[in-house]
Design goal:
Blueprint lengths: L6 E4 L3 H12 L5 E4 L15 E2 L6 H21 L12 E5 L2 H16 L5 E3 L1 H7 L10 E5 L3 E2 L2 H14 L3 E3 L4 E7 L2 E7 L2 E4 L2 E4 L5 H6 L8 E10 L9 E4 L2 E5 L5 E5 L13 H14 L8 E11 L6 E4 L6 E5 L5 H16 L15 H4 L10
Parallel strand pairs: 1-2, 1-12, 2-8, 4-14, 12-19
Antiparallel strand pairs: 3-7, 4-6, 5-6, 9-10, 10-11, 13-16, 13-17, 14-15, 15-16, 18-19
Helix pairs in contact: 1-5, 1-8, 2-8
Amino acid sequence: MKRSADIVVIGGGVAGCSIAYQLAKMGQRNVVIVEKDQVASGASGRCPGGFRQQWSTKADILLMSASIQMFMQLQDELEYPGDLEIRQIGYLFLLYTEEEMEQFRKNVALQRSLGIPTEIFSPQDAKALVPFLDTSSVVGGTFCPWDGRGSPMMVTYAYARAARRLGVEINTGTCVTGLMTAGSRITGVVTDRGTIEAPSVVCVAGTHSRDIARLAGMELPIRPSRREAMITEKFDRPQVPALMSENVGYFQTPNGDILPDMRPPDVETFDISGTRGFLSRTAAAWAKVLPPLAGVRVIRHWAGYYDMTPDAHPIVGPIPGAEGFYVAAGFSGHGFMMAPIVGKAMAEMLLDGPTSVDVTELQADRFERGGHAAEVMVY
């Protein structure tokens, strides 16, 4: 392990590997990643992998529009020999009350004003798109054909592989136990394998970013929120778009497997053990929305967590009062879909260049400034 670097990235998830790759691509070769477990072992290896532009705030719509453009070039850019499974299969939101429809009409108006081709759907439109849907209780919906899904694990591996090819050192099984300081400046990291001096440290450790910041006496408003997911055997029907129905999401892989995940009660916990109740609740929900799924068997079941902020926007940028310390965390369940553009913007910021997208609204001091609109499209 190197004992000095120009930039240390804490966290080997998709966002951390994206940042390291972009730094190396821009010419910064002396970059080190430290990861306490393995690449993609945290949230990046546990999420279904959706990406979408259906948001309620301008900041997230523009961020994801730029990110999706990058997703569509990623397979070639990273020269990954496997399939990243990136497909623009669309996102269909199913809505069951007029109150929901009112909010989504506002969302669609904003999205369309920014060039996103989202459409308001009737129950009949939804049924025409997915003939085996049960729309008997559906009031309406929205659909954007530019949305889709990719494999979070494969994308993370692809970023890590490309970063290594450009000279980035990735140290797995390396736990950060402290931050080196000189006055108010962060000067490196202390790990269970030794120290690494660096003038810039980027914390991309998901919910654990809160604990990393506390090592230097800083508080980040990030907390864990538990989620559960599963994968089924092949669903023997035509490819369906990503579906969001009440608090359950459905994502289909290119192989035909279905990845349902459910938003449970918001509980702050790091416990990632699966629960039997999740299986029964999700099975009942999917039998209601997609009746043919009732006979499909579950292959595997797991849990993870979102790293939530008070306004459901990520924290991206320098941390006031800690010179040389940067954070890209608090993605509120949407780190995979934001990773391409956040990686690029953070690398540009670290190298003192203009950023490809404006991320000033995402910096940590926004909570003191106030006035930043919260994102309500958290699923």
